Structures are given as C-alpha cells and as structure tokens.
Prior knowledge:
The protein has 404 residues and is of the alpha/beta class. The chain is built from eleven helices and 18 strands.
Amino acid sequence: MSTSAARKTTISIFRRDFCPLWSQKARTLFYSPLGVLVVAVFVAVLCGLVIHPRVFVLAGGLLALIVIGIVWPWIVLRAVRAEWVFDRQRATEGEVIPVAVTIRNPLFLPIPGLRLRGNAEPEVHLATLAARRQIRCEWFWTPSVRGIYPHSPRMVTAFPFGLWEASRGVPLTQSLIVWPRTLPIGAMPAAADLESIDGNVARPKVGTAGDLLGVRPYRRGDSPRRIHWQQSARHDRLIVCELQATMRPRVLVVVDTDPTVHTAGSQGTREWAIRIAASFASGWLDEGAMVGLVAGNTVEPIASGTAQRGRILNALAKLPTVIDSPPPWHSNEVRKYRDAFVIRITTDAADNRSNDSEHRVVLQREGFGGSPGVSGLCVWLSIRHPDDIPRQLRFGWTEAHRGS
Length: 404
C-alpha cells in the first residue's frame, strides 16, 4: 500500500463515527450552554482538588447558576395560569381563524420570555407578563391542513439564562375541528342514478331518467338519444331534452389509507385524497344524493342530509396521520354497498385488487412529490398534479362535460 493510500485510510478511520447514537447524545449535551457549564463545574472541582481549594468557590458559583437556570423556569410555569380559546368549533383549511390566549401571573415578579408552542401551530412569543396581572393575547392563524387543533399546546420558557427549557400543557376550553378543503364537483354520473333505493319519488333536479323538464341547447358530451329533433329542425341547431331525476342515488366514497402508497405532507397524495373525498361527499349531498364513507377503520353508513355532510367531514378531519389498517376494498362496508356507486380514491402505487364496479380516482404520485407508481389500475379519473384537481372534479367525466 502506498503512503498516500495509507494516509487516506488513517484519516477515514479517524473521521468515521463508530457510535452515531452516543455521538448524537454527546453533541446534544455538550454543545449546549448547560453542557458547557456542567463541564466547567467538573473541571473546577478537579482544579480545587489538585491545585487550590479556592477554585471550589468558582465551582459553587457555577453550580448555583445551573440550579437557578433549571429551577426558576419550572417554578414560573407551575405558577402561571393560561387558557387557549377559539371563537368557533369548526373551520376549513385555508380559513383565517382568530385565536386568543388568556394568561395570569399570580407572582410578585414580572415574567418575561414566555412562548406558546404546538405540534402544528406556529410558535407564539408573548409579551412580558407583569406581576399580579392578567393579559389576553390575540392573533390570527390559518390552518394549512385538516385536523383537530391545537395539537398538544404547551407554554415554554428558558428564562433567565436559557440553560434549560421548561414546558407545561395549556388547558383548552374547546378544540377546533378543521375540515378538509372542498372543491366544486361536476354533475352526478348517470350510472349513479341506476344504483338507487326503492320508494323514492321524482326529484326536482336534472337527471338522466323520468319526465321531461324542458329543453336547452346542445352541449358537447350530450347523449344523441336526448336530442329533440323537431325542436332542432325548427331552430336550425341541436336542442336536447332535460329529464327529471326519478331516484335518489347512493354513493360510497372509499379512501385508500394505506401509508405505503401515499406521499406525505399537506400537498401529498394522502391529504389530497381526503380533500377529494370531502368534495365528492359535500357536493353530491347538496344535490340530494345519499353518500357514505369508508376510510381505514372509519365508516359512515350511507345517508343523506346536512347532518350526514357534517358527520363525513368530521370523520375526514379526525383521520390520524398514519393509519395501519387493511385496504378499504376488503371492508365489510364496501361489500355491503356493492349495489351503490362506489368511488375509490387511491394512487398509482396501489394494489390492483379491487371490485370491477368501482370507479377509481387515481392520483399520480410523481406529480405529488413521490416516485412514479407501476399500478395497472383501470382509471375513472386520473389526476397528475394538484393544479389539475379542480378541472378534473368539474369536467372529468361525461356528465360533468354536459353541465347537467
């Protein structure tokens, strides 16, 4: 082995971290002010034993500094009383929310350096809290993703020396449920009117069967069977008939919650799949359909009305970030509603196993910050990028193109 090669090997051995876990703990301890002071106390004690006993005075002063820097923040947070308040119970992603926190200082000393911290909310630095006073801090906050807020809010401080950061939980008067953002949805698919419950009377809405409601100009995508030829000949342009909806469609929205097929983050496929599910449910419930939801272990049976809309949006908002559950197409709820119009929202990395009657909305992982999938799913709607979602949900299938 040459001299240069031996030198490189020696250097690489000395640069290699043989105990990365312990090295990280050592860096965390000794690269902080508290770690530096602990080392200084240890060195001062050794010097006092070896050189001169007067060095013990320095060691005692440093030790007192450490004790005050740790005990004082702990005492302050045990004395302070705080309360986190929202002015509402529900909100939607992207909505500006006013937040207020009331803090009371029962001590006879002012308290500076207080901060409020949550897992998802931005850290808030509070003003100095005067002795025997109460303050109310207000600010505006915009949630970027659905969920239950705040996420474990805590009040923290490292005053006066910044040696150790003490924390304490903040009680809540109420939590804020943030619903996923919804987008406008196109018209109900014609196939959905065929999967209906018995005993429904005709609805005063445009559908694909039933009595004649009126006529209108032809739109691209309209079925030739609905062309009114006499009116078309009279006006020298194509005129189509609008028929009445005679049944109430039943729709089951299935969200694939398998974490292995999704990309993470507020703009990942997982959160967009939840937003798309919320859009389908909200839009078609407003049209009078009966809609149900299956997402992992969360099941909302098919029903209709405003209350069902709230139940589905609440369920989607409360879905945990990581769900370890069987794929939704094996759910008993999916088998129970095989006669319904089933929409499954998944990605191109999902398993092919599925009911052939499902209508699959497939998000292409490559456009959402992930690696491309290799799935050969038969697709009803293919979404390549988040910017493509509004157009696809409005005009992605034939009935949406018709505008009926």
